[in-house]
């Protein structure tokens, strides 16, 4: 008994000083780890917002984007959180009653007011960009275009957001920002991957934008846009064809067919059995159409479908000029185009039309695409209506023309072949955000894509926590070892002094 008591007394671990020392050591290390971890813990996410209105020729759409507040100038974290289609036509259609253009936008802006948290309203930028419809109105009647913008601005200023102005985008901007959107959402810019070209088909204009090794802008400076994004330089080729959006292309194709004829158009691009009386003004009231109503013709014409793909393609081809080219190579209408390169994303009306026709899969050979289109165009109008009861008749009547136009534009216009047609992907959205120019436009105006690659933290948060914990444990073990002189001597038989 007394030997045991003696041993206890000699064992330094049992001295109060050592116990207090150890407890303080442990507490200090736990405190150190806790403070370090808490201090560096990612904060609960707060979001910032941006709103862009795409005022297109056929309609206006509002998009809200959000991103984590602390990532303003950082990597691909901006996401679309709401899209709202404005009721009615595009703002350029309100030239004779501009106030209606402003009023038409309010419903979607009300939705935006609900969606963005109140405390973020005043700092949320709101942009309106108008495309080919307003470009055309501005060409035709610039004072009408100014009035439409005044009405629209007045309406937008009534909302609590930070309104940054309404303006017409140039065709070059529309093409380039569409390309930025697609490649940003695909993370191709930040990761310096091969970029994806952008094919955008609207109602009044169409854009093609891509990076090609044999294009540095010297051949055709008007088609060049230089970007430095995330530390990489891009020489983008871009061209916007005004009047080659699918609605204006349809007018041009129809007007072409009225040139010689009397009051009836027998149209191979519309289904057999389709027949409508239309006013000539639907064709000629556009700066895209230079032909005029045939001499002595009545005010209206009879539009009758014949449903013949190959003849439709012949008529469509006539709206392109393939004969002149002062460069080494052209697409059409004397416009330079370098060799096609890389994958492409085709969106807007490219997607709507090819999706309706069940032709978004580009592994389907081009010959099969044309066969299917031929069959679809030859389908009687009544049968088409029966098969698609839910589709708006105006859209439904035009899909034969639109499909033919898309195939002709891609193959004859831009020179896609059977070999590189599969490089095209028809897309609507990428990771939940619509493909289109709006996101690229906002990223540019808010400086959200840095020219240089952002510095990334040396360690992710989990790695940081692990390292702090391991070092703290090591310190603790070292501390224990530093008390070694005080450790009891090991012996099988306790020494009794
Ligand atoms: N389900 C749908 C929706 C739209 N469209 C067509 O797609 C085109 C609209 O494409 P969009 O990108 O919205 O064009 P806008 O922005 O209106 O035109 P632009 O860019 O030329 O100003 C229009 O011809 C419209 O008729 C379609 O065929 N099917």
TrEMBL record:
PROSITE patterns referenced in this protein's UniProt entry, alphabetically: GDA1_CD39_NTPASE (PS01238)
Transmembrane segments: 12-38, 461-483
One Pfam family from the record: GDA1_CD39
Gene3D superfamilies noted in UniProt: 3.30.420.40, Exopolyphosphatase. Domain 2 (3.30.420.150)
Cofactor (UniProt): Ca(2+); Mg(2+)
Major localization listed first in the record, in broad terms: membrane
GO molecular function, one term: ATP binding
Key words of the record: ATP-binding, Calcium, Disulfide bond, Glycoprotein, Hydrolase, Magnesium, Membrane, Nucleotide-binding, Transmembrane, Transmembrane helix
Role, per record: Catalyzes the hydrolysis of both di- and triphosphate nucleotides (NDPs and NTPs) and hydrolyze NTPs to nucleotide monophosphates (NMPs) in two distinct successive phosphate-releasing steps, with NDPs as intermediates and participates in the regulation of extracellular levels of nucleotides. By hydrolyzing proinflammatory ATP and platelet-activating ADP to AMP, it blocks platelet aggregation and supports blood flow.
The name this protein goes by in its record: Ectonucleoside triphosphate diphosphohydrolase 1
